[in-house]
């Protein structure tokens, strides 16, 4: 009986540790990051904190990681400019020349971002890009972009900073918890039911 109780306690302990590790790892899973390397283009997609994504792309450009930026995203307000155009205008105001910027102004979601940007990438013969999005969105965006661009193009993951979300403390607020669990669900769905991009 004593041996049985010891086995039960060990199994319970292993389960608790396993669940804890999985719980703590969710944020890191959703936010993969790659070492930066000189690339053919920096790709920033709109959504979430679009301004932060634009700022990160501009900083990468200024730091010399690429001489080209692709901004992707349709209009949030149908009466105004596209998100891509708004990001480009902000980048221009920060000193990025228009000749260094390409736009995809029609994409409405991550799948379309990937599909439409892939066309630009292949058209220009790019072989490596730095993908910039919000940290909680990075894994799903990476999955979709890798599928869209194919094996000939390497996608480096590099997230913008979101002050309301941290991968090491994604459960800290109800907002970040809900955001994380929703994004995890979308990511797992994308793995099980790949989009057509």
In brief, what are we looking at here?
This protein is of the alpha/beta class. It has helices spanning 2-30, 50-62, 83-93, 110-124, 138-149, 174-192; strands spanning 41-45, 69-72, 101-104, 128-132, 154-157.
Search tags:
Rossmann fold; alpha/beta; five-stranded parallel β-sheet; 11% strand; 197 residues; 50% helix
Helix and strand layout, with pairings?
Elements: H1 2-30, E1 41-45, H2 50-62, E2 69-72, H3 83-93, E3 101-104, H4 110-124, E4 128-132, H5 138-149, E5 154-157, H6 174-192
Parallel strand pairs: 1-2, 1-4, 2-3, 4-5
Helix pairs in contact: 2-3, 4-5, 5-6
Mean pLDDT: 91
**The CATH C-level class name:** Alpha Beta
Q: What's the Cα radius of gyration?
A: 20 Å
CATH homologous superfamily label: HUPs
Strand coverage percent: 5-15%
Name the structural class. alpha/beta
Here the CATH topology equals Rossmann fold
What does the largest sheet look like? 5 strands, parallel
